[in-house]
Automatic annotation (TrEMBL):
It holds the Pfam family Cytochrom_C. Transmembrane segments: none annotated. One of its GO terms (molecular function) is heme binding. Residues 31-40 have a biased composition (Pro residues). This is C-type cytochrome. The lineage of its organism: Bacteria, Pseudomonadati, Verrucomicrobiota, Opitutia, Opitutales. It comes from Oleiharenicola lentus.
Length: 336
């Protein structure tokens, strides 16, 4: 039996750790920024769509004879679908949203649910988990640690504008599509020079390179296809510090004395599994490292609440942002 002194010491250590982490700014690279937010930064309002592009040029993609203008590609209520034969018929909320407030889900997450680093990959998420997250947005239980990130308040607004039936329809649609390989992790010390467009890192055309440091930078394999055509078939390269995958493997598979093995809740292959009295835990293998780090940091700093989050709180309590980076690099390197 632990002595009162032992329990008091442990509690003091936990309090000291929580106080330390509470003062830590969110890692800007995971949230789509170059620098951390200044102290006292106010929460930005939900992002809004700009005026439709007027360029009449139509853009195609390999593997399809369909072509669309930029206005059609970026339409928030009917985004272009280059490959309609490669996914099930989407429900109305996915293909057209719910004007004037709720955008089409496919506008940001694609019809195949693969998504991009600045948002979430939805393909293969368990139906009950998807619904729980939308309810968390709706109920004010899910926010971003970086108040400059505009798509989190957008999701809150969308969730509040959707019915339970519409949320379930979107959940079932995306759950029916498998998460497929989307990210290639490359360990390196230097990365292409980048700029940021709507929360996503893009290579600077003709740019030099720069030190990576303690970051993971996700960039499209083909920037033009992703930025201009919003291709749902072009994935990403995740540049990670040298040694990240090996260090992350130790944290993920054994806990490395700082946490618990992820397989305990996310399944032996980290592809998700049901937990009694909680629901289905999502798969982690092959997911965006930027997204994973955002969720770990948000949970650690109290920006997310819910049944799944309560399980995760002790898991993330002692992790540093470098630990989170390593975990995310390893998970992204796994085949879904």
């Amino acid at each position: 039996m632990r002595s009162p002194l032992h329990r008091a010491t442990a509690a003091a250590c936990l309090l000291a750790a929580s106080t330390f982490f509470a003062a830590e700014p969110p890692p800007p690279w995971a949230y789509g920024f170059k620098e951390p937010p200044p102290p006292g930064t106010a929460q930005v309002p939900p992002g809004k769509a700009g005026p439709p592009p007027t360029d009449p040029v139509k853009h195609g993609l390999p593997g399809t004879d369909r072509a669309f203008t930029r206005a059609e590609i970026t339409d928030i209520f009917a985004p272009a679908d280059y490959f309609p034969g490669e996914h099930p018929a989407p429900p109305e909320i996915v293909s057209h949203g719910k004007p004037p407030v709720v955008w089409s889900c496919a506008r940001c997450h694609y019809y195949n649910g693969q998504g991009r680093p600045e948002n979430a990959g939805l393909a293969g998420l368990p139906v009950d988990y998807f619904i729980a997250q939308m309810q968390a947005f709706r109920n004010g239980d899910r926010h971003s640690a970086d108040p400059r990130k505009p798509n989190t308040p957008m999701m809150i607004e969308f969730a509040r504008g959707m019915t339970d039936a519409e949320i379930r329809a979107a959940a079932e649609y995306y759950a029916a599509q498998p998460w497929r390989p989307w990210i290639r992790v490359v360990e390196t010390e230097r990365v292409p020079q980048t700029t940021i467009s709507a929360g996503m890192y893009l290579q600077v055309p003709g740019g030099s390179d720069e030190l990576l440091g303690h970051r993971i930078i996700e960039v499209p394999v083909d920037p033009e296809s992703v930025e201009i055509q919003r291709s749902p078939q072009v994935g990403f390269i995740a540049y990670a510090p040298v040694g990240s995958i090996k260090r992350g493997e130790a944290l993920v598979t054994t806990g490395a004395g700082k946490t618990v093995a992820c397989a305990a809740c996310h399944g032996p292959e980290l592809k998700g599994m049901p937990l009694p009295n909680v629901g289905t835990m999502p798969g982690l293998a092959g997911r965006s490292p930027s997204y994973v780090v955002r969720q770990l940091f948000d949970i650690q700093h109290g920006h997310r609440r819910g049944l799944h989050v309560e399980l995760m709180k002790p898991v993330v309590a002692n992790l540093t942002t470098d630990d989170m980076l390593a975990i995310a690099a390893y998970l992204a390197s796994l085949r879904p």
